[in-house]
Amino acid sequence: MAEKYINLKHLKFLLHDVYSIANLQQYDYYKDYDQEAIDMTLDMAKQIGDTYLFPFYTEMDKNKAYFKEGKVTVHESLKPAIQAIAEGGWISAHESYENGGQQMPLALMNAGLFVFYAANANAAAYAFLTQGAANLIKTFASKALIDAYVPKMYNGQWQGTMALTEPQAGSSLSDITSAAELTEEGHYAIKGQKIYISGGDHEAVDNVVHLMLARIKGAPVGTKGISLFVVPKYREENGEFVSNDVTTAGLFGKMGQKGYVAAHLIMGESDNCRGYLVGKEHHGLSYMFQMMNEARISTGMMAAATASAAYYAALQYAHERPQGRHPSNKDPQQAQVLIIEHADVKRMLLFQKSIVEGSASLLIQCSLYADQLNVASGETKEQAYLMLELLTPIAKSFPSEFGTHAVSMGMQCLGGAGYCDDFPLEQYYRDIRVNSIYEGTTAIHGMDLLGRKIMLQKGAAFKLFVQAIQADLKTAQAYDEVKPYADQLGQRLKGLHELTMIQVQVAMNNKPEVFLADASLYLEYFGIVTIAWQWVKMANKAAEILAKDPTSKEAAFYQGKIATMQYYMAYELPKTLGLHERLLSDDKLTLKLDPTYLD
Known about the structure:
This protein is α+β, with helices and mostly antiparallel strands and about 600 residues long. The chain has helices at about 10-20, 35-55, 55-60, 80-85, 105-140, 145-155, 285-320, 345-375, 380-415, 425-430, 440-455, 460-475, 485-510, 510-515, 520-550, 555-570, 575-585, 590; strands spanning about 65-70, 70-75, 160-165, 180, 190-200, 205-215, 225-230, 235, 240-245, 245-250, 260-265, 275. Among the domains are: about 10-150, Acyl-CoA dehydrogenase/oxidase, N-terminal domain (Butyryl-Coa Dehydrogenase, subunit A, domain 1); about 160-280, Butyryl-CoA Dehydrogenase, subunit A, domain 2 (Beta Barrel); about 440-590. It starts with 7 loop residues before the first helix and ends in a 7-residue tail after the last helix.
């Protein structure tokens, strides 16, 4: 078998059959994206992945980025990779034709992103981090800032970053201390430090543009006093680059993603760092949340795509590695069987497939909601907003957490070989782990879901979620191979609904600490049910296609969808039963535990 990191057939199944994104042609903005254009776009993404990304995945790990004598050096493949993605129009793909974009639906763009991340997230992440930063400038900044920065970011000449985290603040952004003071010249003098800044400094681009949070002198305390600034590494004066007093103190030695730099930056050490205000004073955090929400979907994509590449590496190994015999065969003279013939290996592969493809489905669905939010109106737009808000914590956290388990299963398929760097599984395992930390830890997303999103518009989003699942459960009644498994989901959905109502009552009668104590477990429960829903959607469509042509040469592909759905319902969905029992308990052990007991 040839090396493979992605299944384009699955992505096309999602785009065409499950979500019918060509229906977006009814909106003028997306009128050029019929099925042929969608397929051509995905095929072009795969060509970039095959040529500029996948061949360098392990090389970027073994010859990692490093900091020496004030300079960050990255792998030589990074610059051509960024240029190929930019020249393919991917960084500005969502933009209008008038602004140099392709008016590409986000559902399609993110499917392409899935391909790039599966090929080599260490390289592709630079380009799509720039995309998010450029989007933020374009949405909220002045025309002068847009004209000065966005074109060079979209064409891959300049890098963009998110500069939020500080040594003393971590995820608690209300505690940042980076300062900005307005000068007579109209710019702001910036002073402060930022840590863990992905893409924060390298020479595969000509300049690095930081979207930085800081407090203007005299600003209110807390999150209401945070503003957003464009802070470039170099500024242009009289047509020449000059240093903007943004210094790299070093790179963090990460467990994985060694080709994707994480920098410690110092701004204004020589009192010569200029920042340019984006939008209004003290509105920085609300602006940044646009980029963060986009980045949360992107992080889910990165995790699911990494798990995809690991799955196909494990699947290839399982098809090639002979070991042992079936337990009923005691004859050592008989030939060994390929490990893919062993039931437990098939179980591990099914787990990986169910997580990868279920996550991809959810991420495409969320991207489609974002498209509807962009072009639709009325009830369609309102429902898209509510569903996207509700599902974003799941779309980020489920692939990140369960994708890590999936890669671990892939490593297990290889046995001892999986732990060695002759095979890529150990790198995938190291690389994927950070995704549950990027863009807010899992606990943050658990509190967001339970503490905010469930209550959104008096529960309107959660009600829509339940109704959407019930509609697909109703469709499943027409297919004998899906119906009993869909009925199982119906029972677990009922349990989730009952538990959620109880949690709402707990929230009304207690301090937030009480009902949020196990918010991460609620997020896990919600995520397992959500991915079960994705599998019912996919199985419904596969059963519909098979009913029309059961002898099709593609029958095995669609039967594989139904079999994976059956696995997920039989093996993964029941895990919610223990979570349900735990979340109903009044015993808040972790809340009342004396910290000294942990010494």
